[in-house]
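user: Please review this fold.
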Amino acid sequence: MSPHGRGRPRLHYLILVFLLGAILAPSLSAQQGQPLDPKYTVQFFQLQVENQDLRMAYRDVQPTAASKGKSVLLLHGKNFSGFYWEPTIEFLAQQGYRVIAPDQLGFGDSSRPDIHYSFHQMAENTKALLDHLGIQQVCLVAHSMGRMLGVRFTLLFPATVEKLVLENPIGLEDYRKLVPYTPLQQQYAAELSQTYEKMLDYQKSYYPEAWKPEYEINVQDQARVLDTGEYTRDAWSAALTYEMIYEQPVVYELSEISRPALLIIGQDDRTVVGKSHSSR
């Protein structure tokens, strides 16, 4: 749900240690604050879900150094798209990895259909994208909501996942036990009432240290559909994906993961799904 930008340089360092099996010295902090214009070309994969012709946006970046012959799949969080992975994409490509960073349906440049959103379907869509690209195995890095998807993907397609990294994840709890039920229409109304200022204030709550101007690029990415004809569809998709998070726990299946996995949680992580509705 959050970018956890406060710990990204250190967390991405640990991720790369896990992926490469060696210590890498560079810090990623200097890569923050890139312009909003995407650095990498966004491509589109056509797929059909519930008899609807849809498109899934993705970035497919080839290594810029000697290739290791490996691919990394990056799964984004709830309030973001594949765009916020750009500094990580650049660094991984420099280490010889091919990097795939999709926008899941309902997010970023992908279609925002009125469908039953599920982590199963998102996993199927992502696997179809990898098949389309001819990628048989990946190191999977999943952040926030992407962690719930990453777990589901690994359970459905274990042979496709070489290693699994869960960075500041949500879904370590069953939110049905922690968060009072919110009717879908009520959640939709809340999404329709969003403004740039509300999004900015919400993202500021992620960081225990002082807010930095370079973090605002993630707010700009989230808010780019405001005041457009797409926003009502975006708000509905946002409500449906919140419902997916609340009602489709993966925590009970963690013991079934058979691939090497690394869990990284920032010591000052303050993100709690539905904390504004919870009495705990």
